[in-house]
Amino acid sequence: MKGISTIAFSGGVGGAKLALGLARVLPPEELLIVANTADDFDHLGLHICPDLDTITYTLCGRANRSQGWGIEGETWNCLQALSELGGPDWFRLGDRDVATHLYRTQRLREGARLSEVTAEICLALGIGQRLIPVSDDPVRTIVHTAGGDLPFQDYFVRQRCEPRVTGFRFDGADRAAINPELHAALSSPDLSAVIFCPSNPFVSIAPMLAIPGMQEALLAARAPIVAVSPIVGGTAVKGPAAKMMSELGLPITPLAVAKRYSDLATAFIVDVVDGDQVARVRELGLACEAMPTLMNNDDDKLRLASSVIDYCHALSR
Amino acid sequence: MKGISTIAFSGGVGGAKLALGLARVLPPEELLIVANTADDFDHLGLHICPDLDTITYTLCGRANRSQGWGIEGETWNCLQALSELGGPDWFRLGDRDVATHLYRTQRLREGARLSEVTAEICLALGIGQRLIPVSDDPVRTIVHTAGGDLPFQDYFVRQRCEPRVTGFRFDGADRAAINPELHAALSSPDLSAVIFCPSNPFVSIAPMLAIPGMQEALLAARAPIVAVSPIVGGTAVKGPAAKMMSELGLPITPLAVAKRYSDLATAFIVDVVDGDQVARVRELGLACEAMPTLMNNDDDKLRLASSVIDYCHALSR
């Protein structure tokens, strides 16, 4: 059996869309999806992994497509009752979603690694692809804001990304170990593509790259590393990336994202509306192509996945 | 303001019915409902208090009347999702019920006492009566069975009371302290009635009586102690009491229950169908009356509550 040919690093919603496309294009045993865990947090004693869960629900076809997170047809009776009790209701826990958190938390308490629990959940939900946390060790994004440091979910959900961002840190990253399965795949001769999904560069991709040895392992991989721009037409397709760039004094352009990856990546993909950026990205020393990157439906996801893989293969020739 | 006039010791369903009747009859500030906690258990990291919750849901009018536990109109989406994940689904956690457990568990983790958390839940749900756990310290019923020792919920829910019972023990009871509010009420000059609700004598009332100093405090109280028989017409109105009595070699009669309370109680109430037991109970040295004790509707609960209180007042004259 062939080993992993494609590794996709992903945050939540946008990344999960491309991950789904890749899952439709590749044989299941060839795809390794690596999820950011720096959004994870403990809430009401539940260990919640928003990115892993978004990818999981997306891959098994249960994701709520209109809101971009959670489960289609979800109910909210637990949250409503919690609210009536005066409990914290700022993080919207759906009834079915709670089951995922209860299951995961209990298994972790029993001593299972997050990787093991994720594999169990994927198996139970009929997901044939390998989905793993980037590390089994806790890494937590802390958002530096004008009003002080905020744990990521406090910033993202409770404060709706309103505080002005001045920087980030990734608590625990310096003590985290790369998931051994990722390490093995990165050093495998079967590997032909490493993809950074169109995820937030600051809080989805950066915390994964902050794990000691990660950049070295990526540079040592014998496959092109291709990043897909999450910035399209001067804004983020989803989430706070554009607002963060603005607050950090960066232009809201694919080029500004590409600069962050220029020491690491082989190539950068911009959307067709940003064709003017291609030449400037190439000046960074990166290969660059423009292609349609918006994924409004499953056909879009499949098409982008195919295009990205074809591009990786072309780059490695 | 007058202090507590009436203390009701209660387990789950049957006890909660009389507690509701008492709540309808007495001014809220005069009633103290004391719940058994020896059924409590930790499940999926949630601290679950079945008797407290049954009484809570009953008092606030949310109890599911047909099944005798849980919440009316409850949904089961979390449990179904948990089952799909291969998580433990033998204990039926409703979506709204999960909120109670999440809230309680979080508050306990924050350092609150179970009494405090119970008061918070009662306040949030509009319950004006005082409902307290018999102790803030853990007491856990272990059921001795022909097949070995079983934690109570394993016996009661997972194994549906099927194992043959040979005895009980109450882990932690010897180190538990009587709830200070109960201790104060028992020694108050305002107290005029102590009621043992028609709850299981082995696993609802006995663990409360096993707490050091409880029997002494009851005997020192200046109010009659009146127990209502949970055995009516040769069977238990609800739950495994009759099966337990049979397996323990006891006759399934009110008299056999009365004998367990004969050193402690002032009086014993049997149902009208057990009028033949009155003389035999009186031979134990207990006062005894027969009255209608079945509580099929709210009128029944109110009527029994009134009758029991009137009887207590008659006894103390």
From TrEMBL, chains A, B:
<protein>
    <submittedName>
        <fullName>2-phospho-L-lactate transferase</fullName>
        <ecNumber>2.7.8.28</ecNumber>
    </submittedName>
</protein>
<dbReference type="InterPro" id="IPR038136">
    <property type="entry name" value="CofD-like_dom_sf"/>
</dbReference>
<dbReference type="Pfam" id="PF01933">
    <property type="entry name" value="CofD"/>
</dbReference>
<dbReference type="GO" id="GO:0000287">
    <property type="term" value="F:magnesium ion binding"/>
</dbReference>
<keyword id="KW-0460">Magnesium</keyword>
<dbReference type="InterPro" id="IPR002882">
    <property type="entry name" value="CofD"/>
</dbReference>
<dbReference type="GO" id="GO:0043743">
    <property type="term" value="F:LPPG:FO 2-phospho-L-lactate transferase activity"/>
</dbReference>
<dbReference type="InterPro" id="IPR010115">
    <property type="entry name" value="FbiA/CofD"/>
</dbReference>
<keyword id="KW-0808">Transferase</keyword>
<keyword id="KW-0670">Pyruvate</keyword>
